[in-house]
Amino acid sequence: MKRFLLLPLLLPALSAQDKPDFSKMKADQIFDQLCSSCHGKDLSAGVGGSLVDGEWKHGSSDDELMKSIKEGNAQLGMTPFKTVLDDRQIRSLVIFIREKEKQAKERGVEFPKPEPGKVTKTQHEDYKIEMVVEDGLKNPWAIAFLPDGRKLVTEKAGRLRIIEADGKLNPEPVKGIPTIIDHGQGGLMEVATHPDYEKNGWIYLGFADGKREGREVKTITAYVRGKLKDGQWSDQEWIWKADPKFYGGAGVHFGTRIVFDKGYIYFPVGERGGWHDAQDVENAKGKIYRLHDDGRVPEDNPKFEGKTPVPGLWSYGHRNPQGLDMDPRDGSLWDTEHGPRGGDELNLILPGHNYGWPVITYGMNYDGTPITGKTAEEGMDQPVTYWQPSIAACGLSFYRGDKFPKWKNDLFAGALAQQEIRRLRLVDHKVVEQEVVLKNIGRVRDVTDAPDGFIYVILNGPDRVIRLVPSE
Ligand code: HEC
């Protein structure tokens, strides 16, 4: 009853003519002005109660939180905000609350920092980390394994490096690789060997292709294949290259990973900061592609009535996919992509499907202003899971090896910002378990299972290659 009295006190203030312009405000500012009086500046106390203790009386889903904020609760004294705030602003408040909820939950909880030799215990398997390359790499991005025990590592600035079979990093980069533009988030990114490498010797690269002339830069992600002969790159063939009109100056969202399956190659091209380009099937950006592994366009790729999709298009509505792998159990294709703040996604990739960016997203702009109030729309696929706050998802790999039998077929997702690797167990295309298995030893750029059965991890800051090995 005491709470009930608060309602009439607050409403006149909001309907006053000089009400602030919320459309220009960031989520934390809106919260400060409209919510902190009842829920506390740090969201943890007040007549409205805590919003960060993980207990939700009126429903814990994002939709239920939106409803609580929109409709209020007259009996309990929660103001309805639907006439004050629009869906976009309410959505940004939900993301903001989720971020604070996670921070509160993790306060004081330390994930033990894995150190070489020390055993880290996780739900199903215990592991130790081993240093593969401690020094000598700058901004490593991806790793591939050759049957003779050598490993290839890309460096973003445009160098392809060899870790020799004895474990030593060859000081000389591979000569003769294509011209690579080191531009913002792009540069030399992916390296992958063909599944029949032993027979055909093909190595594939994904990188920022383009031109730099003075201060003008025009780039987009491109893919080639070539062979390694006496430390030289040779026999190069283009696999995928965009029409020149799609090259652009933005330094963001290149995407880039490679997956092979049954004579096909799958790879993404990020939306390069051109948000709505992701929705246009005739535009090269914000897409996942499928080609024959020699670059030919398959006849049975998705068709779009009245439109000429960009050659090779497999799925669209993507923002910045930097994780891609195929489930060894059923051949289903999965990506992780960086969303905006609060909108990182794990998606099941199906031919011709639209993954919604930027029409739907669970995220908001990095500065806390809203993007959209919509998280779902007819004809657009939902993520199988999403991360709020964002983890900055990068690198994705199913575990096919036999060194960690209890992790068999689990999915490992790396994260840059959260500096972690998450293990996800998928059953019937749903996430039934999710666990952080490694944290706090650097930004995770790539995680991949290897032919030796260990899990290799590329770290940025410090720039290293490590691997997870069983504790025994
Ligand atoms: C006048 C005081 C007041 C203001 C202002 C207020 N709230 Fe509340 N809020 C409450 C009360 C009281 C409840 C109900 C608490 C309960 O059930 O015990 C509540 C409940 C909620 C809930 C549901 C909590 C649950 O456990 O399910 C959410 C979410 C919420 N508020 C968010 C907000 C946001 C966001 C704002 C600002 C836009 C806001 N509130 C402003 C008083 C307020």
TrEMBL record:
Residues 22-101 form the Cytochrome c domain. Coiled coil: none annotated. Keywords: Heme, Iron, Metal-binding. It comes from the Bacteria. The keyword Heme applies. The keyword Zinc does not apply. InterPro entries: 6-blade_b-propeller_TolB-like, Cyt_c-like_dom, Cyt_c-like_dom_sf, Glc/Sorbosone_DH, Quinoprot_gluc/sorb_DH_b-prop. PANTHER family: ALDOSE SUGAR DEHYDROGENASE YLII, HEDGEHOG-INTERACTING PROTEIN. This is PQQ-dependent sugar dehydrogenase. It comes from Luteolibacter rhizosphaerae.
